[in-house]
Amino acid sequence: MSVQFLRDTGTVFSREFAPVVREPLGLLFTMGQPLLFLFLFGPLLGEVGGFEGSPWQWFVPGILIMMCLSGPMMAGYSLLIDLIGGSMERMLVTPLNRTAMLVGRTMKEFAILLAQAVLIIVLAVPLGFRPHLTGVLAGLAVLIVFGVGLGALSFALAIASSPGGDLFYGVTQLVMFPLMLLSGVLLPMDSGPGWLQAVATLNPVSYVVEAERALFSGRFTDVSVLYGTLCACAVAAVGLVVGTRAMRRGV
Fold first, then answer.
1. What is the C-alpha separation between 232 and 238, in angstroms, rounded?
2. Angstrom distance (rounded) from CA 209 to CA 57
3. What is the pLDDT of residues 190-223, one digit of tens each?
């Protein structure tokens, strides 16, 4: 990895992260839905039953995955705005490494996701969530890998959707909610009908969710950790390959 590549990555990251620093309240606005689920939906789980231990141990990791799906998965929106406005074309004629353009944008999503995840965990502790410190660190690592992959795929979709953007909005809305509902982030899939559980086994997000729950509880040897980590790494690898190719081809 060359010094020039690292410099270009830092340049893109600084450019993308600057608006976040100028308007930090925007982070809270993007967390509106997760916070509503945490404070208004989470307390209801105590009446549902069927959880091993506290329902917060089960629910908080699901909230973090929900943030991945509604955050990095929609990260391509900012790139789409640049494409429509013409600023991306101006960047493409600069000496900036095109792979660095993708990595820099992805690192910005990495930083935002990490900050939001830490805030959710801190807010959940007074509600009854008891995180395993080492497990939380491992879980955040898996979460970031998964989020980076989703962000890269989102950027590739944005490039394929330009200049209109209709494809981006259609695909993200069509894919995001089924992935979320079939991953068991809100309610246990075990209580659903057999056909729904069978469909859920085809959803890679469900394996990442189970891995997060096991890690946050300190169950490092649980087989779900292996499956979830493999799924997160697979999504990251596919996302970075597809996103890099799309960025190198340009618009």
1. 10
2. 12
3. 777 888 888 888 899 999 999 999 999 889 999 9
